[in-house]
Amino acid sequence: MRIRKYDFNYSRRSFIEKVATGAGAGVLAPLWSTIANSADDISKSYPDELLSIEMYTKGKIKPGDVITAANVDTVKDLLEPLMFEQVKNHGRRLNIVASNRDVTKMFNATYLKKTLENKGRAKVGDDGNVWTDGDKTKPWIGGLPFPDATDGFQTQANLTLNWGRHDYSQYTAPFYSLSPDGEVGYRHEIVWCELNTTARTDNTVFQGHTDKLRFQSVFFTAPNDTKGSSFLSIWYYDQRKFPDLYGYFPAFKRVRQFPTNQRFEPLVPGVTFFLSDAWAAGDPTLTWGNYKIVKRGPMLGAISGHHNWTGGKHPTWDQATHGGKKGKTFYDTWMELIPEAIVFSAEPSGYPRAPVGKKEVYVDVRNMMFPSQVTYDRRGQIWKQFEAGSGQLKNDKADVLGADGKPDWTWLYCHTHDIQSGRMTRFRQEKSIPSGYKSKYATEGEDVYNKFLTPSAMARLGT
């Protein structure tokens, strides 16, 4: 019996071979060569069945359909295990849309431009860090360092070096933490700020901080019992070093420094989100180890921003919920068939007392962003899901333009589901929150460093 080269199972065999050999993205043609030549159409890189959910499922699922417990087994191989569990047993629904073939809609334009300009210049030094042209005096200069990642470390570095893919990002979000009975037990409002000092897109180093990667803070503006609580992480460029972590609590009226490896605990009581979860890259890359790609293949993910972003349709960009015991557990979400995703695993080598045994991160090769992360406890049991939707801030009702005049891009929502305790924290990036802070993706002339990103700023925000 002779196997035809391009039969329906050709892609599956190709993915298995790529995991074994460490090859890059694309099935019919190298993905990033296709993007460089025609970024608005990746069709030459993949066969039709990887770009059409209808063809992939042989007509059983098509755009406009809804995945429920009744039909989720049809797409079980496209879902990470906790998403399958949510649909099968917790009343979650997944709205299906057509796959995006235009990569320009999966980035902010400046970050994609830098990625293409600097492709091939990132090198891993003998110290394990990423350097421009291999020169240890030159931190990474912007864009994805490894757009065509071939191993787990490179894939993680793409997520870590610039979380929000802007030189400065500021997010406002209400956090809803649900108890096992499906009711909202806690509602917090937060402001999250991240300022890259290196790995920027403007060809500068912020205030000469070549030894730093970013300043990142989060502070709570509601409710009253947590209002004023704040945390500041100062990340070093050397990914072998733990960030400096500072916190301020109004009850103690002082800033204190926390143990830097205290990254697997809730920021405040009731929340299932940990610092380690952020962007599936909340810890320095070299404080984790044993990186390896365990799978390549298609998956379903919330990458279509124009469906998952509610700008112009809802005044704060909020979204309806469903599922769980009270219909409040999951955001309504729109999923597309991702033609190729990398699944890599890693273990927390720098944290001897970490409750996490390993993580598996699912990454869309088209923009190297993660649709989901699943963590396992030290016994090897599934513990938590950290799922994120992302996309361009443009739909048929509104858009948000970046400094380049093109629609901007960001994360849109997150689910942090602790399956062992039955608790869920979900949050969406909103246009603004009642305290007056707004989401934005540039400094807009504001001295954000002194206002939000120093220990003294933490104390000032707390009072």
UniProtKB/TrEMBL annotation:
Keyword presence, Heme: no
Gene3D superfamilies, per database record: Lipoprotein localisation LolA/LolB/LppX
InterPro entries the record matches: DUF1329, TAT_signal, TAT_signal_bac_arc
Pfam families: DUF1329
Domain of life: Bacteria
UniProt keyword list: Signal
Transmembrane recorded as keyword: no
PROSITE patterns cross-referenced by the UniProt entry: TAT
Coiled coil location: none
Name of this protein: Secreted protein
Species this chain originates from: Panacagrimonas perspica
